[in-house]
Amino acid sequence: MTLLQRIRLLTKLGVYMQEDSDEWQAVKERAFRNNGWFLPEFIDGRYKILQ
Fold it and tell me: How far is CA 1 from the centre of its chain?
């Protein structure tokens, strides 16, 4: 994977996370169920810091 491909992929990920779709909410809930350290509100907080 080239650097440009990585940048494009991360850009798509950022857009996906901003949309806050039902699917993204489900991913956060699943992460929390599999690992209690991943609280959905903490995931949101970390994402906002990275923006």
Answer: 21
